[in-house]
Amino acid sequence: MADQKEKKYLKPLPVIDEETRPWWEALQRHELYVQKCRDCGDLRYHPRAQCTSCLSPRTEWVRCSGRGKVYTFTATYQNQGAGFREALPYIMAWVELDEGVKMLTNLVECRPEEAEIGMPVEVVYEDVTPQVTLAKFRPAR
Amino acid sequence: MSLTRKACVAGVYEHPTRFAPDKSMFQIAAESIRGALHDCGLTIKDVDGLAMAGIGMSGMGILGFCDYMNLNPNYVDSTSIGGSSFVAHTAHAAAAIAAGLCEVCVVAFGSTIASYRGPTGAGGGGGDTCDQFEIPFGPTTVGSYAMVAQRHIHEYGTTPEQLAEVAVTMRLHASMNPVAKYRNPITVEDVLASRVISSPLHLLDCCIISDGGGALVITSAERARNLKKKPVYILGTGEAVRHAARGQRDFLDIAAAQSGKLAFERSGVKHADIDMAMIYDSFTITVVSTLENLGFCKPGEGGAFVSGGRLRFDGEFPINTDGGGLSSNHPMMRGMFLVIEATKQLRGECGPRQVKDCRIALVHGTGGSLGLRHSGATLILSNQ
Ligand SMILES: [Zn+2]
Predict the structure, then answer these.
(1) Are B313 and B321 in contact (CB under 8 A)?
(2) How much is the pLDDT for B228?
(3) What does the alpha-carbon distance between residue B301 and residue B294 come to, in Å, rounded to a whole number?
(4) Which tens digit of pLDDT belongs to each residue from B272-324?
(5) Among residues B247, B258, B248, B272, which one has the least CA distance to residue B362?
(6) Which residues pair with B198 in a beta bridge?
(7) Residues B340/B13, Cβ–Cβ less than 8 Å
(8) Which of B133, B135, B212, B345 can pair with B331 through a Cys bridge, CB separation 3.0 to 4.6 Å?
């Protein structure tokens, strides 16, 4: 079953490195985190090993509520890339999390004409392969 | 050290091809170099600097071109920051010449992206650690710019009609350029009726895809004075990068704000002094957002600024008189052609599309993806 699912998933998968692995492992548990610098308090998405404001390596993981709003989006009608051509049209968006940082994602369970900047959204976890879960967002319920 | 008037664009050549399935990228670049050297009366023996970037030419591609051309330059620059690369190369060459690192630097480009027929702009990135947070979601080049357009419309009330006016003006200019790929006039209605590629951008809001190439010869002001063509002086330069800024970016603040400010400060030129501009038009939104960020109008006023024929060759603020990437050519990178057309305008060589009394021109290149990460490079050029 797992093998079958892996074969069916055509879109590119993230190439996860040791620096970002904890974040991806949290998604597998259906948990979303952003990072906060223990020294200067700066928030950051996506995760990385040091604070870009003060270069401190002392990092705190902040569990997100999974809620936010659409900062901007686009409904894509043309992409010949494998996996995407089968999914047209799909919505790509920058979502601003309630915690205060923006992340690139897809809006799901939402038709292009329903999408709006400022729209409240909530996270949904898509287990696309046994190793990879993606954080996507749907209109908040 | 001020760079002002230390170096010049002495020779330029735009390869006339828009489709060249029978040629290699290197061949197009080499033919362009021959044309640019011929333009100013120098020979390949005079060349001691080389700057280059291209599709499939990242990393060490410039070594292959030195081999192909049997060149042994004293100065090499393979800065690869997308379509703005050649604008940045021009600035770097000017600095290198002013510092005595070389005397005659050729900036060259050749591309066969259209005849290659593969998918272009489908995203995928360069394999760095940032890509894992983007590629699963289907970013395309158009989609990235479309997200900036959507935000611009939301925040400022910019209309799709205003964006379309940019494409209409570029097509008017292309109709006066014998080598432009698309020369039939279009209307705002045509743009809005064309299919949506990535909302809110329609097909005609997007640059075309062509093969092509070109070359520039940059040399010292002293040497340029004795060459065949009237020298075009480099007055000021700037470059910058914008990206997601750890999730805290304002997407309407683009690299042009930083690179433009530097170029104006370094040249001592005021906005009102600019007679024409070459503004990278990968998409209609690129032009609107760039004009705001360069300070030609206030944030939010870009839509109104591009309306009413202001951008026409005979309007108040002529831009992209060659027809731009929206209509003339776009071999995936077009910074080269921005410098070429600005130089020709400053020399008065543009025939029916010539801007009257053109003395100072601004060139701005954008490279990469506006809604993910991108570069900006600005040049201010003068014929005096
Ligand atoms: Zn810090």
Answers:
(1) yes
(2) 97
(3) 12
(4) 999 999 999 999 999 999 999 999 999 999 999 999 999 999 999 999 999 99
(5) B272
(6) A76, B201
(7) yes
(8) B212
* Cα B55 versus chain centre, distance: 15
- How far is Cα B98 from Cα B36, in angstroms, rounded to an integer? 21
Average pLDDT over residues A27-48: 98
Question: Which of B129, B138, B147 shows the shortest C-beta gap to A81?
Answer: B138
DSSP states of A27-60: HHTT--EEEEETTT--EESS--SS-TTT----EE
Contact B126/A at CB under 8 A: no
Residue A1 has pLDDT above 50, yes or no: no
Ion ligand 1 nearby residues (CB, 5 A): A 37, 39-40, 42, 51, 53-54, 56
For residue A59, the chain B residues in CB contact (below 8 A) are none
In the structure, what pLDDT confidence band is assigned to residue B126 with cuts at 50, 70 and 90? low
CB B298 within 8 A of CB B292: yes
∠ CA B271-B276-B282, nearest 5°, is 100
**Residues of chain A neighbouring B199 (CB-CB closer than 8 A):** 74-75, 77, 112
Contact A117 B137 (CB under 8 A): no
Cα dihedral value B53, B56, B59, B64, nearest 10:
-80
Q: Quote the CA–CA distance of B7 and B337 in Å, as a whole number.
A: 19
Structure tokens at B35: 């044309």
CA–CA dist A79, B95 (Å, integer): 41
User: If DSSP codes are grouped into helix, strand and coil, which group holds residue B374?
Assistant: strand
Spatial separation of the C-alpha atoms in residues B318 and B335, rounded to whole Å: 18
Tokens 């005595």 locate to: B100
pLDDT in tens, B29-61: 999 999 999 999 999 999 999 999 987 776 688
Question: Is the backbone peptide bond immediately before B139 cis, with ω within 30 degrees of 0?
Answer: no
Query: What interface predicted TM-score (ipTM) does this complex get?
Result: 0.95
Would the CB atoms of B137 and A105 count as touching at under 8 Å?
A: yes
The residue to which tokens 């597998």 are assigned: A28
Kindly state the percentage of chain A with pLDDT values over 70: 95
Residue of B nearest to A104 (CA): B134
Sheet holding B75-77, edge to edge: B75-77, B49-52, B104-111, B212-220, B7-14, B232-242, B374-382, B360-368, B276-279
Give me B330's structure tokens.
């776009």
